[in-house]
Specification:
Layout: E1 7-12, H1 16-31, E2 35-41, H2 46-66, E3 76-81, H3 95-119, E4 126-129, H4 136-142, E5 147-151, H5 155-166, E6 181-182, E7 190-191, H6 205-216, E8 223-226, H7 234-243, E9 246-248, H8 276-282, E10 289-293, H9 302-315, E11 319-322, H10 341-344, E12 349-352, H11 357-362, E13 366-371, H12 375-384, E14 388-390, H13 397-407, E15 411-413, H14 423-434, H15 439-457, H16 462-490
Parallel strand pairs: 1-2, 1-4, 2-3, 4-5, 5-8, 8-9, 10-11, 10-13, 11-12, 13-14, 14-15
Antiparallel strand pairs: 6-7
C-alpha cells in the first residue's frame, strides 16, 4: 500500500480574528507531522500573512538543516482564491455583498483550486474550514475529502447557536427586551442581552442565514474543533459532545503567551503595532496600568468614547488605550477622543493605534483589560492571567462577557444603557476589578486559569491529546476506506 500523504487544507477569510486561530492551528498540526496549506481570499492585507507563513516554514527548514535532518520537516504554505471582489473592496463596510460573493464566486474558485491540487496527485487528507464558510463542506464532499471545522468562538456560544437552529422552541418570542431571561441546557440562565446578537431580530439577515447553513451542513462535517479547552468550559463541552463529535483543542493563542520558543509564527497583525508602548509599560509599577482595546473590527460611538475617556481620567490610574485609526472610505468612522484629553492625561496615559497585545497582556505593569470580549482577546487574557472589565458589543461578545464574569468570575461587566457605559460606571468597574473587595479573588482565579491553559496544550494535555486523536481518526478512516476499496476490487 502506498504511504499516505499527510497534507491538510485550512480555509479561512482574511480577517484578523479569523486568520490567527487558523494559523495557530496550522502550527499545532505541523508539530504533529502534518503539511498544511492555508487557503484564504485574496485581499490587500494578504502579504502580511504570506510573510509570516514563509518565515515560519523557513525557520523549520533552517533548524532541520542545522541538525542535518532529512527530509525537510513539514511546513505551511499559503494559496489565495478570489472572492469575486476587488482587492480594494471594503469587506467590513459591505459584509452582505462580501459573504454572498464569497459563497458564490469564492466557492467556485476554491473548488478549482482543490481540483488543481488533485490533478497534481496531491489530494488533501482533510479540509478544515471556518464556520462562517459552511459551503466549504460541500466542496469537501464533492471531492470525497473528510471535512472538519474550526469553531473560532467559545463552546458556550456554539451550544447556544446549536439549540437555536436545532431546537428553536427553546427560544420563545425573542424580542428586544434586554432583561428577558431564557433557561437553556448546559448554559447559565441568559438574558436577551447575553445572547449572540446574530440571532436577534435586529441583526442583519445574512449572518443568521450563514449560521443556519452551517448547522444544516453539520452532517457533512465529521469533526468540530473548538478553540477552547475542556477544563474551562466543562458543561458546554460535555453537552455538545453528546450532540456532535467535538474536540476542544485550544487555547489557540500565540506561543509567546504560553512560554514557548519564538520559532513559530505567533500572530499576524493586519496593522503595524507600536512597540514603543512596551518601553512605556516598563516604566510603570506592577499591576498599575489599565489596558483598553476593542479589537480589530469594533468601533466606539462618540458617546461611548467620551464616557470611557472621562471614566479613565477620573480613575486616576495609568492607562494604555488602543484606538484604531478609521480605514479609508469606511463608514465606521467612530468617535474621536475628547478635545484636550491627551493633554490632560499625558502624565497618566498613552494612546496608540495598535499594539502587540500578547506582550502587553503579559507585562507585569498591566492590572486589568477593558475588552470588547471578542473570543481571541478573551483567550489571550485568560492565558495571560489578567482580569477583565467586560464591555461587549455585538456578535458573540455579550455571551463571552457573561461567561468571563459570571462563570469564570475573572472580572466585572459594565452596566450600559443603549450600549453606553457612563463615565461613573467605567470608573466604578475599574475600581472593582483592581481595588474592590473581590479584586484579589478575580486575580487569583485568572492566574489559576493561566496555569490550566498552559497544561492543556503541553505534551499529554487534554487539548494536545485531542489534536492527536483527531489526526489519528482521519488516517484510520482513510486506511479503512482504502482496505474496503481493495477488498471490493479483489472480490
Amino acid at each position: 500500500m502506498v504511504a499516505q500523504k499527510k497534507h491538510f487544507l485550512l480555509v479561512t477569510v482574511t480577517l484578523q480574528g479569523h486568520l490567527n486561530p487558523m494559523l495557530r492551528l496550522a502550527q499545532r498540526l505541523v508539530s504533529k507531522g502534518i503539511n498544511v496549506t492555508i487557503a484564504t481570499n485574496n485581499h490587500v492585507s494578504s502579504h502580511r500573512m504570506l510573510k509570516s507563513t514563509r518565515a515560519f516554514t523557513n525557520n523549520l527548514h533552517a533548524a532541520a538543516a542545522a541538525q542535518n535532518t532529512a527530509p525537510k520537516p513539514p511546513g505551511i504554505s499559503l494559496v489565495f482564491f478570489s472572492d469575486g471582489l476587488s482587492l480594494e473592496f471594503d469587506r467590513n463596510k459591505d459584509v452582505d455583498s462580501f459573504i454572498k460573493s464569497l459563497r458564490t464566486t469564492g466557492a467556485k474558485t476554491l473548488s478549482t483550486l482543490v481540483a488543481d491540487f488533485i490533478a497534481q496527485d496531491n489530494k488533501f487528507s482533510c479540509i478544515i474550514c471556518n464556520p462562517f464558510m459552511p459551503w466549504v463542506a460541500d466542496i469537501a464532499a464533492e471531492y470525497g475529502i473528510p471535512c472538519a471545522v474550526l469553531w473560532i468562538q467559545a463552546c458556550t456560544v456554539l451550544s447556544v447557536y446549536y439549540l437555536y437552529f436545532k431546537n428553536f422552541n427553546l427560544f420563545p418570542a425573542i424580542d428586544e427586551n434586554p432583561d428577558k431571561s431564557l433557561e437553556l441546557p448546559a448554559v447559565s440562565v441568559l438574558q436577551v442581552k447575553d445572547l449572540p446578537s446574530f440571532i436577534l431580530p435586529s441583526s442583519p439577515p445574512i449572518f443568521r442565514e450563514t449560521l443556519s447553513h452551517f448547522f444544516q451542513n453539520l452532517d457533512k462535517i465529521k469533526w468540530v474543533l473548538v478553540n477552547s479547552f475542556a477544563e474551562m468550559e466543562k458543561e458546554a463541552v460535555s453537552f455538545m459532545g453528546v450532540l456532535h463529535p467535538i474536540y476542544p483543542i485550544g487555547p489557540l493563542v500565540s506561543p509567546f503567551l504560553l512560554g514557548e520558543e519564538e520559532k513559530t509564527i505567533g500572530s499576524v497583525d493586519i496593522w503595524d503595532a507600536e512597540n514603543s508602548c512596551i518601553e512605556w509599560l516598563d516604566k510603570k509599577p506592577p499591576s498599575s496600568v489599565i489596558y483598553i482595546s476593542f479589537g480589530s473590527i469594533s468601533v466606539l460611538s462618540q458617546k461611548q468614547m467620551d464616557d470611557l475617556a472621562m471614566g479613565l481620567k477620573n480613575s486616576n490610574k495609568p492607562f494604555l488605550w488602543v484606538i484604531r485609526t478609521a480605514e479609508k472610505n469606511s463608514e465606521k468612522k467612530g468617535g474621536e477622543l475628547p478635545a484636550k484629553f491627551k493633554e490632560e492625561t499625558k502624565e497618566k496615559g498613552l494612546v496608540v493605534t495598535w499594539c502587540p497585545q500578547e506582550k502587553v497582556l503579559l507585562h507585569q505593569a498591566v492590572a486589568c483589560f477593558i475588552t470588547h470580549c471578542g473570543w481571541n482577546s478573551a483567550l489571550e487574557t485568560v492565558v495571560a492571567g489578567v482580569p477583565v472589565v467586560a464591555y461587549p458589543g455585538w456578535t458573540d461578545q455579550p455571551t463571552v462577557a457573561k461567561f468571563l464574569v459570571d462563570v469564570l468570575k475573572i472580572g466585572i461587566r459594565v452596566k450600559a444603557e443603549d450600549e453606553v457605559a457612563s463615565a461613573g460606571e467605567v470608573e466604578r468597574c475599574i475600581f472593582e476589578v483592581t481595588d474592590g473587595a473581590e479584586a484579589k479573588e478575580m486575580k487569583k482565579r485568572a492566574l489559576e486559569l493561566k496555569e490550566a491553559a498552559k497544561k492543556v496544550v503541553a505534551d499529554g494535555g487534554s487539548s494536545d491529546q485531542n489534536i492527536t486523536q483527531f489526526i489519528s481518526e482521519i488516517f484510520l478512516r482513510r486506511v479503512k476506506g482504502v482496505e474496503e476499496k481493495e477488498n471490493d476490487e479483489n472480490a
